[in-house]
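Task: sequence design from structure.
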């Protein structure tokens, strides 16, 4: 078979140009993808800082430093927090956002919220607890006095003083209760609290007619958000199956955010 020598160089030239064209478009596609990724990554490398427990002016300074913005959109009343400081944020700390993204802040109200003291005398402890919480208050210390009915509310106090129903008091103020204690029903049990957050542990303590004692946090708890996420890793007295305890006993708690400490229990 004869080969057309004149067409052979032309065929090679066409093939070479086709290959070069393919390589050019492949290189162009790769460059475009890399550039898009770089641009996208550039717009998403900002990690949202933790604004909780900062004042609004301080939050703005931190936001400017990170090329983002802040906006106060709501307020709550938290007695234990500094007034006017950031309670929560959206997106949360650690989120990845684009430059100039606005972080929405909920702050602790600068005005003290007042609520009315309910009438708790004659209620059971469980009913009194529900009434206290629904009124915007918190359960304080439980004290006992011999009476016919155990856990029947005999009196109500704030900081050692009787407070009449209808009196305006600050929201989240702890209400102390004097409860009845029958000689035939005067013992309870220590609940197992390891791994629970403070609100859940507190509920378990009061449900068992006990008092919340000292609460402390280890070195892993640095921010207000950490206190919300922290869980109990040590309780005193410790839990023992079937071991009775006197009603009104105080349970002291230590909390952490370290899962290693929890796993060791």
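Answer:
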């Amino acid at each position: 078979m004869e080969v057309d020598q004149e067409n052979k160089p032309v065929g090679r030239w066409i093939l070479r140009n086709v290959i070069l064209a393919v390589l050019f478009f492949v290189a162009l596609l790769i460059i475009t993808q890399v550039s898009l990724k770089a641009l996208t990554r550039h717009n998403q490398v900002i990690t949202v800082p933790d604004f909780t427990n900062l004042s609004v002016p301080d939050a703005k300074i931190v936001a400017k430093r990170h090329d983002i913005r802040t906006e106060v959109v709501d307020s709550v009343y938290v007695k234990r927090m500094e007034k006017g400081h950031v309670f929560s944020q959206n997106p949360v700390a650690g989120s990845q956002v684009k430059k100039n993204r606005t972080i929405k802040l909920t702050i602790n109200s600068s005005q003290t919220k007042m609520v009315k003291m309910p009438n708790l005398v004659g209620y059971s402890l469980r009913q009194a607890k529900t009434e206290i919480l629904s009124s915007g208050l918190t359960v304080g210390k439980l004290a006992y006095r011999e009476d016919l009915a155990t856990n029947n509310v005999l009196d109500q106090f704030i900081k050692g003083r009787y407070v009449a129903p209808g009196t305006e008091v600050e929201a989240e103020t702890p209400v102390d209760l004097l409860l009845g204690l029958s000689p035939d029903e005067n013992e309870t049990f220590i609940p197992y609290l390891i791994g629970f957050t403070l609100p859940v542990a507190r509920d378990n303590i009061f449900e068992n007619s006990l008092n919340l004692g000292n609460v402390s946090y280890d070195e892993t708890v640095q921010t207000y958000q950490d206190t919300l996420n922290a869980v109990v890793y040590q309780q005193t007295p410790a839990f023992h199956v079937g071991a009775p305890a006197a009603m009104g006993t105080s349970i002291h708690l230590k909390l952490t955010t370290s899962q290693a400490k929890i796993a060791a229990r």
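Residues 112-185 form a domain with the Trypsin Inhibitor V; Chain A fold (CATH 3.30.10.20).
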